[in-house]
Amino acid sequence: MPDHTAGRKPSLQSAAYEAIKDRIVTCRYRPGEYLNEQQISDELGFGRTPVHQAINRLSLEGLVEIIPRKGVIVKPLSLDDILDVADVRQVNEIHCAQLAANRLAADAAAEFDAILAESREACEERDVERLMHLDRRFHGLIAHTAGNAVLTDVLRNLHDRSLRHWFLSLTDPDHDRRVIEEHERILDAIRSADKERIAQAVADHIGSFRKNLLARL
Question: Number of H helices and number of E strands within the chain?
Fold first, then answer.
């Protein structure tokens, strides 16, 4: 998937947003932890204004909550939210993968293979953070291949909301391997253009994630 931002210098607000978000989704800022904007500013080397703007953006995305007269808290993981996001992802990702099956070109197929190869390498190295980002790239490439901009935006938001869930889920070494196997089955189903196979492969993948995460909470 082409990087349309390549060569562009990110704004300070965007850079602060990405840095804070990365610490939240990898649980370096723990669920339920209070955040201090000045401490974040000192830690990351950004001014208070871009940090404040980033916090507001993260609040809109549901990753932090701004509590009047108390401060900013990393939004705790909610069981209801986990289940709701998983259900909505399953419906939309099945449709997205079925659309992608009709548009899979050679260059996208090669990129899928490269992501899976890198995922197997990261699994051997037990690099959980890298696996999480590769998981997001895999699903992002499916959305890009589907060619529906509105659906891509919906799934991007759902992926952002579930990144912390995936990070916790991927800390199980057996689940790491299952995720890669499930991705391989999804890709095989997309290549077959069999809608029933695609639906089953995606449903199994989301179901595995839900089951593994519930067992860890």
Answer: 9, 3
Residue pLDDT, tens place only, 176-209 = 889 899 999 999 999 999 999 999 999 999 998 8
For tokens 């579930």, what's the residue? 162
Tokens of 96: 């997205």
Burial of 116 (0-12, 13-18, 19+ CB in 10 A): middle
Q: Give the DSSP H or E segment for 58.
A: helix 48-60
Q: What is each CA distance from 110 to 75, 94, 99, in whole angstroms?
A: 38, 21, 18
Q: Which pLDDT tens digit goes with each residue over 18-67?
A: 999 989 887 889 889 999 999 999 999 999 999 999 999 999 888 899 99
Which residue's structure tokens are 């649980």?
A: 27
The two tokens of residue 50 are 């871009």
Neighbouring C-beta atoms of residue 21, cutoff 10 Å? 19
Tell whether pTM > 0.85: no
The Cα–Cα gap between 121 and 125 comes to 6
List the structure tokens of 94.
């099945």
One-letter-per-residue 3-state SS of 34-57: EECHHHHHHHHCCCHHHHHHHHHH
